[in-house]
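User:
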Amino acid sequence: MDADPTPIAEHTLALQEHSAGHTARARQVQQLLRAGGLRLRFPAVLESEFRAHHDDAALRIFRASLTWLALLYLAMAVSALTVLSGSHTGVWPLIFAGFAVIMVMAWGLASTPLMRRRYQRTVTTLAALMMILATINPMLEPDEAFRTLLHIGTVFVVVVVYLGLSLRLPYALLAGWGGGLPPLGLAAWFGAPLDWTLVVPTYVGASLLCMVLCFRDERQRRRMFLQGELLREDQRRIETLARELSRQALVDGLTGLANRRQFDQALKREWARAQREQQPLALVFADIDYFKPYNDLLGHQEGDDCLRVMAGIFRSQARRATDLAARYGGEEFVLLLPGVDMNGAVQRAEQLAEAVRLCQLPHPRSGCASVVTLSIGVSVMIPQADDESPEELVRRADAAMYRAKAEGRNRVVQADQEPMAGA
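Assistant: Predicted structure:
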């Protein structure tokens, strides 16, 4: 006899596939950690996750750093004014004010959706503007001593661009070289005075050094992300297994129906609700007729298949979210039907009995039919008093089921009422 796959088997397969997915991802992360290399790029899915993770952290750091950048800006302004006499200010105050404008723009953008969606591009634009001002500033200063100070100030800007804004290396390169080289190139093209003995050790030297540090920093961040991803994968796997263990504690392993424990919990819950709302609570209690002779003759595998078929029929009768089909124990099954009166419960019981007969599972040793059948008891109660218990509902249904067996099996009997004939 071929039995349909049970929900618990399907769920177990799904769990295995889910676990295999976790394992494959963890294996991929481990391979990346072992590989090392100079590439700052992951496979597409991991790369996307890293960028989102990195940019979220970068934005938090950027917001927290704005105050410190403002203080650094003020310190440099005070230092410059201390060194420079008022008669030699030139255009320096205007250029230096440009940095203040960029910082105000940064303050304004820090909490906007644009910054959250496009952190790298937005900050790269601001950083490139800073580099343009930093490289132009020394060209416009006639005082040699102060020009040297401005070149040193360019080093501070380079450090901020590469290391202070959490830019990924490609964006840091775009801001550092893309913002600094064009003004220098234009100045050389038009013959503007350039002191290369200062430009090379300050702007160029600091940029090369910061490139290396930025590369090393991003590599370290990527390794930390991968290590964190391994931990997150382990956590997700543990949570999945915990949910499955919790689910299996309430599910019958053979049939996939609710087990006795889940039925007891549901019975107490629905009993309390029926008592509160004064609604009927029905219980259909069924036993497979002559199941032990069936098992002894055909073997346990056929017996297990028979139980799975019965489970499928009971599951089909649990039509509403509040209905519960359960394996009560051995060859006994129950159907809990909140809000269903006796007529409705008996109708569902008759449908169960008929569905089992229509399966035409041969039963050579049945004393009541040539096929597998059910003896069913039905009880319905509207809880009235606190001294009544849900166990009374079970007792009545169980007693009605035993009456059905005593009166010839293959029938439905109502609790405390006359029996109804089966087929």
